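To the team - NDP complex, inputs and output below.
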Amino acid sequence: MKAIQVSEHGGPEVLRYTDVDAPQPSEEQLLIDVSFTGVNYIDTYFRSGTYPQEVPYIPGTEGSGRVVHDPKGEISEGTLVAFNEAVGTYAEQTVVNRNRVVAVPEGVAPEVAASMLLQGMTAHYLTEGVWHVDADTSLVVTAGAGGVGLILTQMAAAKGARIFSVVSTEEKAVLARAAGATEVFTYSDDLADRIKAANGGEGVDVVYDGVGKDTFDFALDVTRRRGMVCSFGSASGDVEPFEIQRLNRDGSLFLTRPKLGDYTATDDEFRLRAQAVARGVEDGTLSFRIHPPYALEDARQAHEDLQARKTTGSVVLRVG
Ligand code: NDP
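Output:
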């Protein structure tokens, strides 16, 4: 089958389109014909070696497609599913644990189904697990027009929260506003002060920061006394080591560096979050903006654009 393979860590150029053997499902897995695969920022960390990953490997963990074989015979051939935690999805076929799939609701486009789980479940645990966002919550989200950012904004807006979204361009600001952000900001040295002024002179309850290195100081500055800094990603690089005493000085802050796997650790928790996202997509309360899909063989271009901040919303590769 055709797939993208990484044989050495490096930049987007190490994503090579090639022929590999099709995977064989274990008893607990399903074999899937992939329609679309999601491209996520975490794929760039594995590719570069920032996160440990043996080579050679096929990138990607989520997507949509049709079941072609269930060794247990429980799920019929042809069933359309969305999945996460699959093993190598930048490929014509992949295998995934049977408990990490959901049926694609009627009328949901396969490219939306392909990108809804990883980013949707992330936004879900951030707003329901890390901090219980409600109508009294004020929050900051950085990369507010990115894949996670737009969905998190929609989920928080539906709860009536005050959302201060931070983006790099006016085009992205338009998208963040349409997703429900209360106010949108572009970067400046006095960003924390401008947001506090917009929040009645107070810091915010929680900061959701997927940018990392470049925005960590800002995140500490803009959080209220006893508020939460949720550093959930490193698009600009890893946060530098810092003095823990800063959390005390800046107002007894809480700091967490969470990951999706710990908030979908059990099958029940995975199902709860996956179904909440799928329901939201089906009833229209969640709208995934899909950046124009790339072909599988153009995975390199997709990574280049994602890392050059050229994409908005969710990024997918068309496979089958
Ligand atoms: P995005 O679509 O949000 O793309 C990344 C965005 O980060 C860019 O569009 C850009 O937005 C912003 N950014 C700021 N500085 C930089 C920089 N120096 N280089 C590149 N981008 C920069 O990606 P995802 O939605 O896939 O992921 C967002 C973040 O969430 C990532 O850090 C990812 O690792 C993290 N994540 C964490 C999870 C977890 O469970 N911990 C799960 C899923 C994602 P702008 O131009 O507006 O600044």
